[in-house]
Design a protein that fits this description.
This protein has helices spanning about 1-20, 150, 165-170, 175, 185-195, and strands at about 20-30, 35-40, 45, 50-60, 65-75, 80-85, 105, 115-120, 130-135, 140-145, 210-215, 220. It is an alpha+beta fold. It has a single domain (about 1-145, about 210-220), classed as Thaumatin. The strands form 2 sheets. Strands 2, 3, 5, 6, 7, 8 and 11 form a 7-stranded antiparallel sheet that branches. The chain has a 5-stranded mixed sheet with strand order 4-1-12-9-10. Residues about 1-20 have low confidence and may be disordered. Belongs to the thaumatin family.
Length: about 220
């Protein structure tokens, strides 16, 4: 009986740890078209308009991101391609997507047990986005809903009508920040003026990183 009780105790302890170490990200497509949501870590999901994808992300995850892919076509084995946001031709993403794409980025349960999250336009812009906490009394969310594609500078405009990032276009240290010494540019200010709470270039930390207590759940909405 003692072995049985110990086994039961271990089972519930393991179950508690599993749930305690996951944050729920509810990813919703409010766009009037199909979006292939992508997540690292998490894979991918086709979302028709108004559909949602509940994704549990382990506490301690760093370098996490969610983005929207469009114009995708996959075969039965999950291989194919996307016009925007493609991740090595896989339906279930295992690596980051190809720009341009707006990103919901996060690191969970880090310094002082805080979650750090942001919307980044460092890789450009494709689909409007809202990234907001939904629990733990954390209420400050981030939105980027302006028609950036329609106002995109000609130098950054892609043939498909999306707005690229200057690093991809010009490939210089001024825009790519490879040396770590870069600052704001005319192009980063274009993004910042339209979405003040979003990252506009890699060193844009002070006004673009938000925190919640670890264990918070989140909502990511495309076309909010």
């Amino acid at each position: 009986m003692s072995i049985f009780k110990n086994s039961i105790s271990f089972f519930f302890a393991t179950l508690f740890i599993t749930f305690a170490h996951a944050a729920r990200f509810n990813i919703t497509n409010n766009c009037p078209y199909v979006v292939w949501a992508a997540a690292v870590l998490g894979g991918g999901r086709q979302l028709n308009s108004k559909e949602s994808w509940p994704l549990d992300v382990n506490v301690g995850t760093t370098g996490g991101r969610v983005w929207a892919r469009t114009g995708c076509n996959f075969d039965g084995s999950g291989r194919g391609s996307c016009q925007i946001g493609d991740c090595s031709g896989l339906f279930q993403c295992q690596a980051y997507g190809v720009p341009p794409n707006a990103l919901a980025e996060f690191a969970l349960n880090q310094y002082l047990n805080l979650d750090f999250f942001d919307i980044s336009l460092v890789d450009g812009f494709n689909v409007p986005m809202d990234f907001s906490p939904t629990s733990n009394g954390c209420t400050k969310g981030i939105t980027c809903t302006v028609d950036i594609n329609g106002q995109c500078p000609a130098e950054l405009k892609t043939p498909s009508g999306y707005c690229n990032n200057p690093c991809t276009v010009f490939k210089t240290d001024e825009y790519c920040c490879n040396s770590g010494n870069c600052g704001p540019t005319t192009f980063s200010e274009f993004f910042k003026n339209l979405c003040p709470d979003a990252y506009s270039y890699p060193k844009d930390d002070a006004t673009s990183t938000f925190t919640c207590t670890g264990g918070t759940n989140y909502s990511v909405v495309f076309c909010p």
